[in-house]
Amino acid sequence: MGAIITKRRKRLLVLVGAIFGLYYYTSENFERRNAAAPVHQQHHRRRGENHHQLRGGNFAHFFGRSNSNLSFREKQLTHLLGVENEWQPGFSFVGTGNAEERGRFLNMSKDDGDGTYDGIGIGLGGETNAGAHNPAHENSDKTFGVKSIGVFHVFRKPPWGGGNQFLMALVKEFRRRKIKVVENAIVPGVKIYMANAVTFKVDPFREAFLKSGKKLKLVHRLDGPYYSARYNKDPRKEANLPYRAREDDRVYWINNEFACASIFQSKWSYDMNKMLGYDPKGYLQIVNNAVDDTIFHNRGRQPFSRLRKTKIMASSWSSGERKGFKTFKWLDDNLDFTKYEFFFSGNVPDGMVFKNIKTLPPVTSEKLAPMLREHDIFLAASYLEPCSNALVEALASGMPTVYQSGSGHAELVKAGGRSYRRPEEIPAMLDEVVLRFEEYQNNIRVTTVSEAADGYLQVYAACLS
Fold first, then answer.
1. Could you report the per-residue pLDDT of 138-183, keeping only the tens digit for each?
2. What is the pLDDT of residue 68?
3. Which residues cross the membrane (predicted)?
4. Which bin fits 463, alpha (ψ -120 to 50), beta or left (φ > 0)?
5. Domains present along the chain, CATH in parentheses
6. Which of 29, 152, 193, 285 meets the CB 3.0–4.6 Å disulfide criterion with 200?
7. Is there a contact between 166 and 194 (Cβ–Cβ < 8 Å)?
8. 8 Å CB contact between 288 and 452
9. 164's torsion region: left (phi>0), alpha (psi -120 to 50) or beta?
10. Is the CB of residue 137 less than 8 Å from the CB of residue 448?
């Protein structure tokens, strides 16, 4: 009898050990070790261990403690999402939620040959006076033959980052055109999907991709590079050094394996990626981010006057170093506040206090938009910035801009403002914009969400053809 009990205990221990080993194999620690491995080892693992990792990943995702608060359906919907984009309650997926919630939350550019980039868009100022009604642009209803698409992105309730804001506006526009949009799931009948950089789980997509006979299509939405956006390095100065961001390497492993097309948010972003030696695959398109123009517009904005203080505004969801807080601090100490008011909306680094600049925590788009229309000039102090959504929102609201040179800002502002290299140059640039305010305002042009949707849909159609 004792021998039988001992044998059963051993079997139980083996079973428990196998379960624990399977869970550990697919834990975040394993993923971090795999990501930290040398490049050639990571590539080998992705090529040679796909199916083992997939089965283990499914096990951890559906039975791990980190997802114990989710229903089985929610686990299914988040199966294709990475750790950084886990399920957030409150968002309605296709066919779920009430109509009001769905309506709100599911809710090309050319080179002129002279080395300057001129994005597409419509004039905001035109020949009208400041504050006059800007006639709505003509919406496109074209689908280019695209009937359905899948999007891998967890939509977050604003206030949130710029990429989230743009994708909300883009999906809302797709649905206005009666295009079926499926979020974070692969479903029968949907042949083309879009993903951002590395913010989705690759192995489940690879499995579906292979099962389809490689007929599924992936449009890869790119910006960065992470080399700049996360590590504050400038490829123009440091590309000759051997260091590369592993996130960028991973982006292009995914891109080269799956992408039928690559969409960059700015030519600056494309140039910086190319400078680091990366080669995007498939059809290539550059489409600037756009905003929901039912929220961000210049209709009814406060008229400009030189008989009062000029109102400057800046905004940012992130409190990261690249967002220009050192510049804001310099202005707080040196700007002539008898001539100017300065208001900032967003997150501020811990411990940073301003004497003269007024601050407000992040607010929803509906609250931010009227604030932009009440101010005169926008200050875009961020650097190494691919395509600032905060800047697009300000321009769409009719605000001439003073901006930090050396990133994607110039493509967005064009002739609608002035650039600076050092904070000490900002006061003179502000004086210049005040002097010629109406001229700069009339020069503002932004890419509309309708035009952005046309650009994306043309790429989808090319992939499906």
1. 678 899 999 999 998 888 887 777 788 889 999 999 999 999 999 9
2. 55
3. 12-27
4. alpha
5. 2-69 (no CATH), 99-106+139-290+451-464 (3.40.50.2000), 310-446 (3.40.50.2000)
6. 152
7. no
8. yes
9. alpha
10. yes
CA distance 251 to 261: 13
User: What average pLDDT does the segment 97-121 reach?
Assistant: 31
The pLDDT of residue 267 is above 50 = yes
Token pair of 339 as six digits: 């001539």
Using an 8 Å Cβ cutoff, are 287 and 109 in contact? Answer: yes
DSSP 93: P
Residue 7: which pLDDT band, with cuts at 50, 70 and 90? Answer: low
Residues 432, 285: Cα–Cα separation, whole Å = 35
Both tokens of 321, joined, read 């170093």
Question: CA-CA-CA-CA torsion for 409, 410, 411, 417, nearest 10 degrees?
Answer: 100
Residue with tokens 């059963």: 8
Say how far apart CA 450 and CA 412 lie, in whole Å.
Answer: 17
Q: Is 45 strand, coil or helix? A: helix
Q: In this structure, are residues 337 and 307 in contact, taking their beta carbons and an 8 Å threshold?
A: no
Strand (E) or helix (H) holding 379: strand 377-380
Nearest to 339 by CA among 310, 370, 319: 310
pLDDT of the residue at 111:
33
Distance CA 201, CA 367 (A): 34
Q: Per DSSP, what are the bridge partners of residue 401?
A: 378, 417
Q: Are 325 and 349 within 8 A, CB to CB?
A: yes
Residue 310: per-residue pLDDT: 98
**Residue 144 contacts by C-beta under 8 Å, 6 or more apart in sequence?**
454, 457, 458, 460, 461
**What does DSSP assign to residue 65?**
G
Residue that wins the pLDDT comparison between 186 and 306: 306
Angle between helices 365-374 and 389-396 (to 10 degrees): 60
pLDDT of 193-214, one tens digit each? 999 888 777 888 888 899 989 9
Q: Identify the pLDDT of residue 23.
A: 52
- Three-class SS of residue 20? helix
Q: How far apart are CA 11 and CA 14, in angstroms?
A: 5
Kind and range of the H or E run holding 257: helix 246-258
Tell me if the pTM is above 0.85.
no
Separation between Cα atoms, residue 64 and residue 184, nearest integer Å: 20
Instruction: Identify whether the C-beta of residue 315 lies closer than 8 Å to the C-beta of residue 343.
Output: no
Instruction: Look at residues 267, 183, 182 and name the one whose alpha carbon lies nearest to residue 222.
Output: 267
Q: What is the CA radius of gyration of the chain?
A: 25
Average pLDDT score over residue span 46-50: 35
